[in-house]
Design brief:
- It is a single chain.
- This protein is α/β, with parallel strands linked by helices.
- 36% of the residues lie in helices and 21% in strands.
- Strands 9-10-8-7-6-5-4-1-11 form a nine-stranded mixed β-sheet, with helices on both faces. Strands 12-13-14 form a three-stranded antiparallel β-sheet, with no helix packed on it. Strands 15-17-16 form a three-stranded antiparallel β-sheet, with no helix packed on it.
- The radius of gyration is 20 Å and the shape is globular.
């Protein structure tokens, strides 16, 4: 079943590393204009149904409760069978309160992904990230009825120490979320950190990931994808659809869509997006691409091998890449186990060169 993604292009302020499209400090008038345009865009897909929903950004939790309610009312018309099997929204602890959490729960959301990154004020300062009380926000979500919460942590931050990462892991585990993601910091050109000349620390990122993998495993979280760990049965269904090459519809400026090898992204510009829909047109697209059968197979392999379970050895997607597969198996860069092809445990963090053979 396809997934539905909605991009909320608003935030209070840009984090220093953020490369996602957003409009910092926009007012409610801009939010209302965006919601009007989003409803118009949704009208072009009245027959579309999805099993999962993911609302990202930007910072969706900057929306006031009444705008959240309006947004979530719109999404329900896309739910297969009337409700989503999984409906997630990203939140920032600094912009969440009880009224918003209640609106989220009442609107049909059943999962929340919260950006924690670190529990160190110093490290958050390096990231130029808006501070927020993660513990208080987590408690608010629990009190509102959310039984499925994910926390994001980050490694490879310049000057981050092992002790600071251990402290963050401990703080996250103390809260008891159902899911934890551990991502390496990526600094792109044009972001504040990039302009300041800061660079990632690859060695620190790998060491941090290995530390997190060990600690989370001890705490009962299974790694089901390279950067994602979950309690049994709490894997992110929406992202699993991405990693397995499924279809998804993206609504909002900068949102990406994929249908049977046709991939495109809506223009990352709020004004152009709204103007087109106000004129009765679909918003302009960018990066429109029709993948060849070989490209589709290669991407499915590349993404599927990120999963701990790997890919069934008998899957016909390997036909196009039999030579590459045999070479990587012979070199020990891939392994066959239980009728499946997977990455060796020791190679997980340095797998890009192997995965690149399928692109």
């Amino acid at each position: 079943m396809p997934g539905l993604y909605i991009h909320v292009p608003f935030c209070r302020s840009k984090c220093g590393y953020c490369d996602f499209y957003s409009v910092p400090g926009a007012g409610e008038e801009s939010m209302d204009r965006w919601l009007d345009a989003l409803e118009a865009e949704a009208s072009f897909y009245r027959g579309f149904r999805a099993d999962t929903l993911f609302i990202g950004g930007g910072t969706p939790s900057v929306l006031p409760p009444d705008r959240l309610a309006r947004l979530l009312s719109l999404t329900r018309s896309f739910a297969a069978g009337g409700t989503f099997a999984e409906a997630t929204m990203e939140v920032n602890p600094g912009s969440l309160d009880r009224d918003k959490a209640d609106a989220m729960a009442e609107g049909g959301l059943n999962r929340v992904s919260m950006g924690m990154q670190s529990d160190s004020p110093r490290v958050l300062g390096v990231l130029r990230r808006e501070p927020g009380d993660v513990k208080a926000a987590f408690r608010t979500l629990r009190e509102a009825g959310f039984g499925n919460i994910s926390l994001d942590l980050m490694t490879g931050i310049p000057s981050q120490t092992g002790g600071e990462l251990r402290s963050s892991l401990g703080a996250a585990l103390e809260l008891g979320p159902e899911h934890i993601s551990v991502y390496p910091l990526e600094i792109h050109g044009g972001t504040p950190l990039g302009e300041a000349g800061l660079a990632e620390e690859p060695d620190g990122a790998e060491e941090g990931w290995r530390l997190a993998s060990a600690e989370l495993g001890k705490a009962g979280y299974a790694r089901y994808e390279i950067s994602n760990f979950a309690r049994p049965g709490r894997e992110c269904l929406h992202n699993l659809n991405y990693w397995k090459g499924g279809d998804y519809l993206g609504l909002g400026p900068a949102a990406a869509s994929h249908f049977s090898g046709l991939r495109y992204t809506t223009v990352p510009d709020l004004g152009s997006y709204c103007s087109a829909l106000e004129a009765g047109n679909q918003p302009p697209r960018s990066a429109l691409e029709l993948l060849s059968p070989r490209q589709r197979a290669g991407e499915r392999i590349m993404l599927g091998l990120r999963l701990a379970e790997g890919i069934e050895a008998s899957d016909p997607i390997f036909i196009e890449f039999r030579e590459e597969l045999e070479e990587l198996l012979s070199a020990g860069r891939l392994e066959a186990r239980g009728g499946r092809i997977a990455l060796p445990e020791n190679d997980l963090y340095v797998c890009n060169s192997a995965l690149a053979r399928f692109v």
